[in-house]
Amino acid sequence: MSKKTARSGKSSCERKSASSGVGRLPKENWRETRTASQCLSHLCLSEYLSDISFTFKDNHKIKLPAHKFLLSMRSEVFEAMFYGSLAEKGETVLIEDIKPEVMKTMLRFVYTDNPEINGENALPCLYAAKKYNLPGLINQCSNYLEKNYIDIDNVCLVHEQAVIYEMKPLQKKCFAYILDNAPSVFSSPGFLELSKATLLDILKDDELAGDEIEIFQAAIRWAKDKSKHNNKSKDGQTLRNQLGEALFQIRFPIIPIEEFAQNVTSSAILTKDELLMIYQYNATKDSTSLGKFCARERSGALITIALGQYIQKKGKMSGCYMNIQECNKSVSANQAGSAQCSPKKKSARIKSVTGTFVGYVKAISIEGTKRTDYEIVGKKITFENPIDVTGSINIQFLLENENAYRQSNYVSNYLYKQENIKGQLITINNIPDGLENITFVCK
Predict the structure, then answer these.
(1) N or C end: fewer C-beta atoms under 10 angstroms in the chain?
(2) Interior CA angle at 213 toward 244 and 197, to 5°?
(3) How far apart are the C-alpha atoms of 370 and 385, rounded to whole Å?
């Protein structure tokens, strides 16, 4: 389940004894050379001066000591628990919904601000932080999840947790990731964990990537899984009931008629009247009513162009430079480098670039377009606002240390590669050495 796991090793506040897993502090002059933060760190998980212990439903042998005053200082929930009108009686508190290791991590945060979040404990710690109202720990868990834990397999789970805990930035980032990587996310086990409300929002979105028939098949897969868990049949009417309003967000009219007949009609999820309405719409070339259905093309289809095969060194230059032009269809390949461009109302947009040079990029200069924020993860640069390819766009990747990556000072022997992006002819000039892929969002 874990992605990038934080540095392992025991915290200084976790000196274990063989019997209880809890350390005792030496009483002789232990405060003498320590700062306030160091003293708190040494009190963490120590029986010294402790006046409360946490026990656990699933493991009665484990007992974690703590200090009511320190806990109450950090959390109003603990303050109410220990000093409120309904304060806990006795010297132990039974914890039924948090595991001991997660509780230890939370206590490390309370005492030291350094909980050591990793891929194994980020989500459980988020739950604990919310339960005991620890905003600092919530932020640390959220930041870890945003930077290290969003991938194809777990993005849906993280999104649903972000919804539950009302973590808007994390929710927004997960949702954008799902839209951009929909074909892969839809085939992952985590996709089945999405709520109906989230599925509806995804199917509504015009930026959703993928072919519509694949979107339909993913929705059917989700509905079948929900029917199975509810011990219901998987006939068309049941699946329709599971999807509810989400059914009408599938763009059935834009599915090629052959695929519609083979996959949608045979599923029995649409009524006879609905099938007839969609067939008539296609037969009359979009001139009849569609009722609640939508025929609007989505703008989120992703097309990735592989460029690694074109890399051959020629000509030294400063940084990594690339030019992309929108050109007339009549331009021949050997003329592409000097082609006349004809701007159009609709264009492809550059969503991301991938290459071995990315790790050395310190800044990106984009001529002729508004500033756009970007994120670098591994070998991939993803633009928060995809770059419109209208006319001619110059992109320069400034390197942190060009001498450490000398190959990036060259351009390709092939000064162009021409591609048809959903009817728009794109010419990629000056392909930098180390550039592997460019991914376009079709607009």
Answers:
(1) N
(2) 30
(3) 10
Does a structural domain hold residue 26?
no
Model pTM score: 0.65
User: Is residue 199 domain-shared with residue 141, that is, in the same domain?
Assistant: no
Tokens, residue 100 = 């001991």
379's tokens: 């070998």
Do residues 208 and 251 lie in contact, with contact meaning Cβ atoms separated by under 8 Å?
Answer: no
CB within 8 Å of 332: residues ≥ 6 apart: none
Q: Give the Å distances, CA to CA, from 295 to 5, 236, 255, 302.
A: 45, 22, 9, 19
- Residue 363: give the domain boundaries: 302-442
In DSSP terms, 399 is beta-bridged to 361
Per-residue pLDDT 10s for the chain (443 aa) are 444 433 344 444 544 433 344 445 555 677 778 888 888 998 999 999 999 999 998 888 899 999 999 999 999 999 999 999 888 788 999 999 999 999 999 999 999 999 999 988 999 999 999 999 999 999 999 999 988 888 888 999 999 999 998 899 899 999 988 988 888 899 999 999 999 999 999 999 988 887 899 999 999 999 999 999 888 888 999 999 999 999 999 999 999 898 999 999 999 999 999 999 999 998 987 788 899 999 888 877 677 777 766 555 555 544 567 888 876 543 333 443 333 434 344 567 888 888 877 877 888 888 766 677 888 877 888 887 788 887 888 888 887 765 554 544 444 444 567 777 777 788 887 777 777 888 887 65
The CATH number of residue 59's host domain is 3.30.710.10
CA–CA dist 383, 163 (Å, integer) = 24
Q: CA 261, CA 334: separation in Å to the nearest integer?
A: 43
Counts of helices then strands in the chain (DSSP H, E): 15, 15
State the CATH number of the domain containing residue 197.
1.25.40
175 neighbors 150 (Cβ within 8 angstroms)? no
Structural domain count of the chain: 3
Q: Which of 148, 180, 213 is the last residue of a domain?
A: 148
**Sequence-distant (≥ 6) Cβ neighbours of residue 299 within 8 angstroms:** 206, 207, 441, 442, 443
Last residue of a domain, one of 109, 129, 148: 148
Residue 5 is given by DSSP the state P
Environment class of 110 (CB within 10 Å of its CB; exposed 0-12, middle 13-18, buried 19+):
buried
- Residue pair 12/37 in contact by the 8 Å Cβ criterion: no
